[in-house]
Amino acid sequence: MNDQAPVELTVRFYNLYRPDSVLIRGPVKSTEITRGAANDLEAKRLLVRAGDEVYRIRRIRHRNGRNFLVEDATLPAALVPGLAAATTIADDVSLLAEQYGLLLGKAEERISMATAPPAIAHILAIAPGTPVLLLDRIVHMLDEPRPVEWRIATATFPAVTALK
After folding, report:
1. Could you report the per-residue pLDDT of 12-70, keeping only the tens digit for each?
2. Rg (CA), the chain
């Protein structure tokens, strides 16, 4: 059974807004996916065993010709079988969940400031060490505490200036 929620709810796990309350969405410029064994941190965040298979997805969002957000998401491979073979990868967890018949529940997100490491700085076209917004989110299944996705997003300023 799929969640037949209204279209507005497909962005319920994406809450970046400008100061004037306009959603900052930005299309996905590129998507990369790999499959591998969960490391200790991924296992802890996704409530799986270290070594369990996971998918890692990198999405780069852009707006007005500039990359402004790099998302690194990890999902338990058992929940999304065959994801690496998919011809297209959904732009967000809500659409991915719909494709795989997963019902999403709550999300927990931690927001902090960090400095951009060189690889992320290169993608965002900023100097390494530039302050960035770090968004650490876990999305759970509806009827159980099992995580569906752990996502770390790194966002630049001034593209992202407020959270709602």
Report:
1. 555 665 667 766 667 777 678 999 999 999 999 999 999 999 999 999 988 888 899 99
2. 16
Residue 61, classified by CB atoms within 10 Å of its CB into exposed (0-12), middle (13-18) or buried (19+), is: buried
**Whole-number Å distance between alpha carbons of 96 and 90:** 5
| CA–CA distance, 26 with 16 (Å, rounded to integer) | 10
Q: Which amino acid is present at 119?
A: A
Query: Does residue 61 contact residue 71 with C-beta atoms inside 8 Å?
Result: yes
Superfamily of domain 7-163: Chorismate lyase-like (3.40.1410.10)
* Identity of the residue numbered 131: P
pTM above 0.90, yes or no: no
CA gap 135, 137 in Å, rounded = 6
Distance CA 44, CA 12 (A): 24
CB environment 120-132: b (16+ within 10 A), e (fewer): bbebbebeeeeeb
Check residue 119 and give its pLDDT.
Answer: 96
Confidence of residue 1 (pLDDT cuts 50, 70, 90): very low
